[in-house]
Amino acid sequence: MLLIPCPWCGKRDESEFACGGESHIARPADPEQLNDAEWADYLYMRGNPKGILYERWVHARGCRRWFNMARHTVTHEILAVYRMTDPKPEIESR
Amino acid sequence: MKPRYSIVSLARNAFSHHQDWQAAWRSPDPQPAYDVVIVGGGGHGLATAYYLAKNHGVARIAVIEKGWLGGGNTGRNTTVVRSNYLWDESAHLYEHSLKLWETLTRELNYNVMFSPRGVLNLAHSPHEMMEMRRRVNAIRLNGIDSEILDVAQVKAFCPILNVDPGARYPIVGASLQRRGGIARHDAVAWGFARAADARGVDIIQNCEVTGFDISDGRIAGLQSTRGAIAARKVGIVVAGHSSVVAAMAGLRLPIVSKPLQALVSEPLKPILHTTVISGTVHVYVSQSDKGELVLGAAMDGYQSYAQRGSPPVVEDFLAALVELFPIFTRLKMLRQWAGIVDVCPDASPIIDKTPIDGLYFNGGWGTGGFKATPGSGWVFADTIANDRLHKLAGPFALSRFDSGSLINEHGAAGIAH
């Protein structure tokens, strides 16, 4: 069970949140210029590290706002919580 | 050649107080070189090795496994076997597998305890019933058994289900695949291991792959915790670690890994003679031959490699269980665990050659790999031996994500993704 620190509401139970998958994936500026493989890469290829994952979460049963979270996929330790507009923080892998 | 298991061997060993049974497989040290090395000693990997030796006469095969046989997803699933998939591509693949299941015990001379006791998929709304009729029609057009039951027939088939129209999850009907059922998961790994070993396959446990040797775009071998092993061909079959191992060869996959939880209850007298699945309220349950209920849940909501899972998921699906089966209200659970499932965006697997010559990949079976074990091994062995995709594997190539020919089986998976 995760205790997730929502940037607006503070620490709340995992069951109030929904995970939106990997973050920092920008929609290509000009999709028509992409070939099929590049478009598939944008649509389907996702980071799946055994380690630190940067992902989007939404406080679905709370303030309903989105935020980013860096989380370890083995220990589930939450290493950073930051707003959607913030840059990706550098976190030393451990 | 190993002595065959039979009533005679059982009687003979009874006289020696069962002290003289041979080990089911050897534990050899790795040879310096093999024709084919399979990375991953789960059911799919062992089946691949077995069919490589049996169907294709490949002489020097090794299976390397970082833990112990059947200690990964093969030993962590809820053992449901069925082939009621919507699309032709999946239906053919899983039906091929189901046909192998039907004779697997005899084929391997090892009792895998395949029990075709039926798989009942519940529908909880008129819309779901409509979708289910479409699905059953599609399945039957592929020559696979499947039928629709109305509420009265559901009640007659499985009397302990709560079919009260006022129930929280009213049951409006169901589909039934009578040839589906369950099998004993450990026995599947052990049976394939024993049969593969008898054909000369080296099964090397506690041997983790740490890297691949690739020269001029061709596989030359691999590095492991037990040294370098040269190989002409390498197959990756590592459910739960597909992305991690593929990354060692520089491959990216459209796969995310999430926990899928299961529970086992205290043992009961026979009470549930079939397998019941509700994809809508996320629960599936069968009763093992030991009397325990074996239960599964929806997938956890976020990526993880920790094989434990999150408690809210368990709470949700136990709530669904006691709504559907009020008789289980006071049942105690004995064990809970999670397996890590590698899920593709379309809930279908990837079986393919890779851009590296001699390196093959089989994975991404998501929440439903167990049922595919023999079929997956069969088509992957054929793919490796002939260096081209088996006709059943063709549609499952990685290139389907570029072309857009996805095989969307979220509905057939019966599990929320």
Description of the structure:
The complex is a heterodimer of chains A (94) and B (417). Chain A is mainly beta and 94 residues long. Chain A is built from one helix and six strands. In chain A, strand 1 (3-6) and strand 2 form a beta hairpin. The longest helix of chain A has 9 residues, at 36-44. The two termini of chain A are 21 Å apart. Chain B is of the alpha/beta class and 417 residues long. Chain B contains twelve helices and 18 strands. In chain B, the strands form three sheets. In chain B, strands 1, 2, 8, 9, 10, 11, 17 and 18 form an eight-stranded mixed sheet that branches. An eight-stranded mixed sheet of chain B has the order 5-6-4-13-14-15-12-16, with helices on both faces. A two-stranded antiparallel sheet of chain B has the order 3-7. The longest helix of chain B has 16 residues, at 126-141. The interface between A and B is medium-sized, with 25 and 23 residues.
Keyword list:
heterodimer, A: 94 residues, mainly beta, two-stranded antiparallel sheet, 6 strands, 10% helix, B: 417 residues, alpha/beta, 12 helices, 18 strands
Layout of secondary structure:
The complex is a heterodimer of chains A (94) and B (417).
Chain A: E1 3-6, E2 10-13, E3 18-22, H1 36-44, E4 52-58, E5 66-72, E6 78-82
Antiparallel strand pairs in A: 1-2, 3-4, 4-5, 5-6
Chain B: H1 7-15, E1 33-39, H2 43-56, E2 61-64, E3 80-81, H3 88-102, H4 104-108, E4 119-123, H5 126-141, E5 147-149, H6 151-157, E6 173-177, E7 181-182, H7 185-198, E8 202-204, E9 209-215, E10 218-224, E11 227-236, H8 242-248, E12 256-267, E13 275-278, E14 283-287, E15 292-299, H9 311-324, E16 333-343, E17 350-353, E18 359-363, H10 373-386, H11 400-403, H12 410-413
Parallel strand pairs in B: 1-2, 1-11, 2-8, 4-13, 11-18
Antiparallel strand pairs in B: 3-7, 4-6, 5-6, 9-10, 10-11, 12-15, 12-16, 13-14, 14-15, 17-18
